[in-house]
Amino acid sequence: MTRIRAVLTSAAAAFLVWGTGGAAFAAPAGDVLLPHPGPEGLVWVQEQWGDGGVVSAGAWESLPTVLTVACDGGGALSVTMESQQTQVAAFTVDCAGDEPGRGSVALPAGVVRAGSFSVGVDASSQSVRWALTVTQPE
Fold first, then answer.
1. Of 12, 83, 106, 136, which has the maximum CB count within 10 A?
2. DSSP-derived 3-state class of residue 42
């Protein structure tokens, strides 16, 4: 697959973000937990509060997949990733320190199957702010 095809497919892929958090916890302007992932990104959730997640399409089976989650605000996040209704990753991120917590998992090519995938985020509290990226580096 050429890089141009991957970028075009990623740009055309639709995704849905859901969450239970609200605007009651406004972060300072310019306080970004994870930067935009660039052309290798399939998904970027810049900011969300409490429980939530994302559903997307456009994954390529022939590329590795990296899921990264960052958080702050106290507590912890439990993160799961499914590909074609099969769990492919699960980890916890501690959000209680002075610096934002960060967790990541790199999945080899073939683990995330072609097509749709989902990431679920279960927060220990609605005051936990989080961001996530899903990338497929070539």
1. 136
2. strand
